[in-house]
């Protein structure tokens, strides 16, 4: 079940990262380097960058697409060996302007499953807030002043 996240911000921009197989194919590296929550298949290589401002409908679930994610150095770490390959980051910068995969949020919660059809639809919805430190908002603190960022 995909649900709305209303907890303290513990993510870079938004709490859901969606990648498309077309963009991953164009990148030429293992999708796990991008760490997406969802991978949508059947998408042309260049299409992903045109999705911000729209929504992805999967059954009754509606996922807002805010922006294309600015990628960090973590993409250079091989998920199997832990070895670093800086060429991955160079390729993302050169071929995608440093941005790859989609910053998303849940507009309408619902259950999704592997194989469910996804379609791009228009929306006027905007996320209630953008995450944590990226927008200059500190992590919330508990009553005793301790940061709640490390709690699960």
Fold and architecture overview:
- The chain is of the alpha+beta class.
- The protein has a domain at 16-111.
- The protein is 12% helix and 24% strand.
- It contains 2 helices and 6 strands.
- It has helices at residues 21-27, 86-96; strands spanning 16-20, 38-40, 54-58, 61-70, 99-108, 119-122.
- It has a 6-stranded mixed sheet with strand order 2-1-5-4-3-6.
- Helix 1 links the parallel strand 1 and strand 2 (38-40).
- It is globular, with a radius of gyration of 16 Å.
Low-pLDDT runs: 133-137, 146-152
Question: By helix and strand content, what is the structural category?
Answer: alpha+beta
What is the chains' assembly state?
single chain
Helical content stands at 10-25%
Strand count? 6
Secondary-structure topology with pairs:
Blueprint: E1 16-20, H1 21-27, E2 38-40, E3 54-58, E4 61-70, H2 86-96, E5 99-108, E6 119-122
Parallel strand pairs: 1-2
Antiparallel strand pairs: 1-5, 3-4, 3-6, 4-5
Short overview:
The protein has helices at 21-27, 86-96, and strands at residues 16-20, 38-40, 54-58, 61-70, 99-108, 119-122. With 152 residues, the chain is α+β, with helices and mostly antiparallel strands.
Keywords summarizing the entry:
152 residues, alpha+beta, 6-stranded mixed β-sheet, 24% strand
């Amino acid at each position: 079940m995909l649900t709305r996240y209303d907890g303290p911000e513990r993510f870079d921009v938004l709490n859901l990262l969606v990648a498309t197989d077309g963009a991953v194919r164009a990148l030429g590296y293992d999708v796990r380097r991008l760490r997406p929550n969802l991978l949508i298949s059947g998408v042309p290589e260049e299409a992903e960058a045109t999705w911000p401002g729209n929504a992805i409908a999967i059954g009754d679930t509606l996922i807002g697409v805010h922006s294309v994610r600015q990628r960090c150095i973590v993409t250079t770490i091989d998920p199997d060996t832990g070895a670093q390959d800086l060429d991955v980051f160079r390729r993302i910068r050169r071929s995608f302007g440093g941005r790859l995969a989609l910053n998303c949020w849940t507009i309408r919660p619902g259950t999704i499953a592997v194989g469910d059809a996804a379609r791009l639809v228009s929306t006027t919805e905007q996320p209630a807030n953008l995450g944590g430190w990226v927008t200059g908002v500190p992590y919330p603190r508990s009553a005793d002043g301790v940061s709640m960022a490390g709690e699960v």
